[in-house]
């Protein structure tokens, strides 16, 4: 069996509770695992250059071998498109608003509006972190065709928004018996999106405000996804959120501690950032 590539992605740095992000950085340093962080340029409308505590931590993340990529602009659920059904099901109020009147939502998804948000976010990256990100993940993996067109036009090289296994979000709602299978129509390898950039599908979210009693069940879900990816020769790409796996919710870190140990035990695994993996791969159309 060939080498398995393990990619940990983590969303929303730049938002609340930077001390919890620092806890995750400490954990990853101990585990010697790099991460791809999808950073909000102006969470809640407050840009990173007004958040010195975050800039310190983000520079630390870069210095420790992690990568920082673009994650929306101010970060709202429908900012770059409509979330998939499994995501809408964990935000019932937003789902109900969208179902009652979708027009105000779709009106914000023109290519011009999305391009403007991406440009503003990229300028914040450039001014505060000194570079322009090449990768993107939409808040709540809410996407639309105009988003992909805007990303390609602005020179983004890749994004990671499409989900292979929705069961992680069913677990968030404690719907353990949903029985929803992998989305077999979703490629299990990064692929060339029709818009012109690469899309790197993510497997699932495994650590969302867990208690100690949740560790075994959520570890088994992550392990089964890892095993399936490994058996197929595919990369394993996990999604997480720093504030939902640290502090009083640090049971999430225990899930990843076990998962990293398991991956190393089965052997021939390499932990890399998503940008590094994509730079090394030849992406097929």
What does this structure look like?
With 285 residues, the protein is of the alpha/beta class. It has one domain (4-280): TIM Barrel (Alpha-Beta Barrel). Helix content is 41%, strand content 12%. It has eleven helices and ten strands. It has helices at residues 18-31, 52-63, 85-88, 92-100, 103-106, 111-129, 145-153, 167-172, 215-232, 251-266, 274-280; strands spanning 4-11, 35-39, 67-70, 135-136, 158-159, 191-192, 198-199, 204-205, 236-239, 269-271. α1 (18-31) links the parallel β1 (4-11) and β2 (35-39). α6 packs across α7. The longest helix is centred in the middle third of the chain and has 19 residues, at 111-129. The radius of gyration is 18 Å and the shape is globular.
What proportion of the residues form beta strands (DSSP E)?
A: 5-15%
Q: From N to C, what is the helix and strand string?
A: EHEHEHHHHEHEHEEEHEHEH
- Please estimate the helix content: 40-55%
Which secondary-structure class do the elements indicate?
Answer: alpha/beta
Q: What would the CATH topology be?
A: TIM Barrel
Per CATH, the class reads Alpha Beta
